[in-house]
Automatic annotation (TrEMBL), chain A:
Protein name, per record: Signal peptidase subunit 3
Gene Ontology BP, a term: signal peptide processing
Record has Transmembrane helix as a keyword: yes
Keyword annotations: Endoplasmic reticulum, Membrane, Signal-anchor, Transmembrane, Transmembrane helix
TM segment ranges: 12-35
Automatic annotation (TrEMBL), chain B:
Membrane topology of this protein: Multi-pass membrane protein
InterPro entries: Spc1/SPCS1
Function, as annotated: Component of the signal peptidase complex (SPC) which catalyzes the cleavage of N-terminal signal sequences from nascent proteins as they are translocated into the lumen of the endoplasmic reticulum. Dispensable for SPC enzymatic activity.
Protein name: Signal peptidase complex subunit 1
Annotated localization: Endoplasmic reticulum membrane
Stretches that traverse the bilayer: 20-38, 44-66
Length: 181, 105
């Protein structure tokens, strides 16, 4: 501590200690604030507007090495108020609508059909009407018709500091129809 | 003009370390509380940064207050040498031993 550089070194080391202590407290405060939010506070209303299945090819259409596949096209409505998820440690929300279903060969199948990134509290009220799915649904068996699925809204709470959390809400049943030509 | 290479005394070292601990700890607590109250992480980081700058200004340069307790050394002791002191035979003592004896007893 008797020279300038030693004092600078001591100060920097202690500054980093304080900085990480504060950031640790911030990281803990985020989940605590979210824990106080009632479970039903996030009003999520998800419904299916239309669904159709058509034959197509994933990837390049004229690439005949990939087989013809049943592609599910979904249109849905979404009302979600996620402003309660916003606190000082929320950097952004990553929303995604997932279609979940079971097949005889696989117990859990999940298809993301739509996603969005919300970066401010003002944008956290989401209203979508007759929204076309961003991504077509397809199964690795190349067959979709007759599969009963359930749509739900999932979201990741991306914090500035700390652990990312995943939550879900909403439910909308959906059955893929026969493929139309 | 402040001589940045100046060395501060022991009391000054204790003081400057205490100041930097106090300022940084205080700014850390205040930054969390204010940021939490305003729900603004930006405020937290700016208060921390301000605390860091204030702490560096207070405790890094060798301010005169850190040099106000200079170490007082013992007065210089002349060691008698053979040339200017006549030592009687039988009780001849040389080297540092007479000095140590004078300091201890």
């Amino acid at each position: 501590m008797h020279t300038l550089s030693q004092r600078a070194n001591t100060l920097f080391a202690f500054f980093v200690t304080v900085l990480f202590s504060v950031l640790g407290a911030v990281a803990i405060s985020g989940p605590l604030l979210l824990w106080r939010v009632p479970k039903d506070a996030n009003a999520v209303d998800l419904s299916v507007e239309a669904v159709s299945v058509k034959m197509g090819r994933l990837g390049y259409y004229y690439d005949y090495s990939s087989p013809a596949t049943e592609l599910g096209l979904i249109q849905f409505n979404l009302d979600a108020d996620l402003t309660t998820l916003w606190n000082w440690n929320t950097k952004q929300l990553f929303l995604y609508v997932v279609a979940e279903y079971e097949t005889p060969s696989h117990n859990v199948n999940q298809i993301v059909i739509w996603d969005d990134i919300i970066t401010s509290k003002e944008d956290a009220i989401v209203t979508l009407r007759n929204k076309k799915a961003e991504y077509v649904a397809s199964d690795m068996s190349h067959k979709l018709a007759g599969i009963r699925t359930n749509l739900s809204l999932h979201w990741n709470i991306v914090p500035h500091v700390g652990l990312l959390m995943t939550q879900r809400a909403g439910s909308a049943p959906l059955t893929f129809p026969r493929a139309s030509q | 003009m402040l001589d940045l290479d100046a060395k501060i005394d022991f009391e000054g070292q204790r003081l400057s370390e205490r100041y930097l601990h106090l300022i940084l700890t205080f700014s850390g607590i205040v930054s969390f509380l204010v940021g939490f109250a305003l729900q603004s992480l930006q405020t937290t980081l700016y208060i921390l940064l301000a605390g860091g700058i204030i702490a560096s200004l207070v405790s890094i340069p060798p301010w005169p207050m850190y040099r106000s307790h200079p170490v007082k050394y013992l007065p210089k002791i002349e060691i008698p040498t053979d040339t200017d002191v006549e030592v009687k035979e039988g009780q001849k003592e040389t080297g540092v031993w007479p000095v140590v004896k004078r300091l201890l007893f």
